[in-house]
Write a structure and sequence with these properties.
409 residues; 13 strands; single chain; alpha/beta; four-stranded parallel sheet; 16 helices
Amino acid sequence: MKQILGYRCTLCGAELPYDESMTCPHCGEKGILDIIFDYGYIKKSFNRETLANDRTNSMWRYAPLMPLKPRDFSPFLRVGWTPLYPSRRLGAELGLRALYIKDDGLNPTASLKDRASGVAVAKAVELGYDTIACSSTGNAASSCAGNAARMGLKTVIFVPQRAPEGKVAQLMIFGAKVVSVKGDYKATFDLSKAAIEKYGWYNRNAGINPILTEGKKTVALEIAEQLNWEPTDWVAVSVGDGCTIGGVYNGFHDLYELGMIERIPKILGVQSTGCCPFVDAARENRPLVPAEENTLADSIAVGVPRNPVKALRAVSASKGAWIAVSDEEILDAMRVLGHTEGVFGEPAGVTATAGVRRAVQEGLIRPEETVTVISTGSGLKDVKNALRAAGSPTLCEPSLAALDNSGLL
């Protein structure tokens, strides 16, 4: 793969040849790797003009910026190229110059995680694996299972026992072997790690496998292209293990290095106050420490993030910020985003929206600025909490008189 120069360890900085390693041999499991791309080589055949003529309406249009060998990607699920909606009401209510909503809940398995899983499945197929495995709070698992099913791979998925039924149902429909772990996400990850090492499955775990960040970065590539290469001042994203926010920064960084955008937007990392190890570390200017996983936003309930360096770098290098919001604010954001823009996001999916509202209130985001908020997952993933946010329907007898007296209209 001529587009790749090698690896760089995020801890020790050692530069290594590119192979199928997943962590630094010197630093062990915590030595998460960056992939070093050859931008000079890539820009010869990948630029604004080539994209303008590309009719591949999916993330595979960005294949030259992925760690994959050239191939026909049409057999894979059509991941990406999700809509970027200009806000019609919410942005004005917040007093922003412009607000855009990137609805990644419209991916094949209804979350942004399809971007990482699509690349992982493509790599597993490329390397000849027949089974792919991961641990997940839900979305990574269902995306892995769905993308793998499309390409005929078997999946073994480890989820915490608290995983919402909607996400577990997806897993079972996609034919995954599902292990519901009696414990938190850390216990789930540890069991998956041990099983993957023992049975030799392809490792889709986002905190370990460096190619997954490169799949997630395609959301940033799309945002820039959909905004005609002029990204907003801010891009807001919900944060769990740190892989997604790390990917968002990587995508904008790639485009900047290729000369396709003139600046990298400030990135707002948003967590729930019930599980916010990144926010606490940034606020107290200290290293990350394990946090409780006490939030209804299950997809970002990660008390021991596996991708801390890339996540922290995304905010610091972009001159962005960290912020935390309560579960009550998250539920309210579900209602507000649905009522004002017609976008139905799950709790973790709308946490970024809640964070933007909080950041505007605190003066962190100014009225003259522009913002893109990424809604990372569909509200159909977690109907239980959607009903908590929305309330109950009005029960009515089947007559106009009863309707008139119901107080609904």
